[in-house]
Amino acid sequence: MARNMLIQLVASFILLALLSPLASAQSLSIYQDSDKYKYQGCFNETVDLADTAKVRALADGASKTYPVDGSMTVPICLSFCNNGTDTQYKYAGVEYSRECWCSQRLSSLATKLDDTACNTPCDGNRDVACGGALKLSVYMMQSGSARVTATAWVLVLAGTLAVVSF
Fold first, then answer.
1. Residue 117: inside a domain, yes or no?
2. Total domain count for the chain?
3. How many Å apart are CA 85 and CA 102, to the nearest integer?
4. Contact 124, 73 (CB under 8 A)
5. What residues contact residue 60 under an 8 Å CB cut-off, 6+ apart?
6. pLDDT, tens digit (0-9, with 9 covering 90-100), for 110-159
7. Which of 20, 60, 76, 111 is packed most tightly, with the most Cβ within 10 A?
């Protein structure tokens, strides 16, 4: 009888251990509050795919790994990819709770997964999904955002020329 109770206890513990990550993954929200970037989905990282020369899904851009101090959030990554470097990047991706990746393109080898596959919370906001192990929560800059910036510079230049000509 004690043996049966022990087996049931161990089985319950194993079941709880297996279901706990699923429960926490389902409670994570997807950040959607950016004016410039729109959520595209959860994508696999491509460094572990055969014949890819370990090229990342968001390659040839900028990246930053934040310390384990609770500072990494999706808005911080989006800000970094938008104006934290000399380049404004089209794509931003968060991976494994504290990694931020920026690029002008998303690899065609990156496959869109179910959103629940990006089940790691951000280090700085435990309620929001920040990718996962070899999984990226990907955001893409909306085309109007880049045009507004270019249009603003044209207007500034035109205004400057108008003032100089008088």
1. yes
2. 1
3. 10
4. yes
5. 103, 104, 105
6. 999 999 999 999 999 999 999 999 999 999 999 875 444 554 444 444 44
7. 76
Going by C-alpha positions, the residue among 36, 51, 127 that lies closest to residue 88 is 36
Burial zone of 146 (CB within 10 Å; 0-12 exposed, 13-18 middle, 19+ buried): middle
User: Residue 98: inside a domain, yes or no?
Assistant: yes
Closest by CA position to 123, among listed 96, 93, 84, 92 = 96
d(CA 123, CA 110): 24
Q: What is the DSSP letter of 42?
A: E
Q: Contact, 118 vs 131, CB < 8 A?
A: yes
Q: How many residues does the chain have?
A: 166
Q: Which residues face 37 on adjacent strands? A: 141
Assigned domain for 53 exists = yes
pTM of structure = 0.72
Query: Do residues 122 and 128 make contact, with C-beta atoms less than 8 angstroms apart?
Result: yes
Task: Give the ranges where the chain is alpha helix by DSSP (H).
Answer: 2-26, 74-83, 143-165
